[in-house]
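One chain shown below:
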Amino acid sequence: MGNTAQKRALRNYRTRLAKRGKARFEVLGLDVDRDLIRSLAKRLAEDDLDAVRIRAVVGQIIAGEPTKKGRILAALRRSPLVGTDLIRGRSHEAGRRAK
């Protein structure tokens, strides 16, 4: 890259990426994982709720942290309906006859 125009173009490109909060980097991996890594990088670059979820799951797997148990129960206990008496009882009707 002895050409100064090429150096300037590369510098400008990296500056534009940095303004968008992105960086270009190179990783080493198996050739069979190329598409997987590219698709993962694209999904993470979208920076939406799916990207947050993907980061959390991949981070847990990489760190080797065990999954936390009881999350559903904890969510139900945080519900604003806790303590309210929603079930008032059922009516016990005879119903219809089966043929």
Observations:
- The mean pLDDT is 85.
- The CA atoms of residues 14 and 24 lie 8 Å apart.
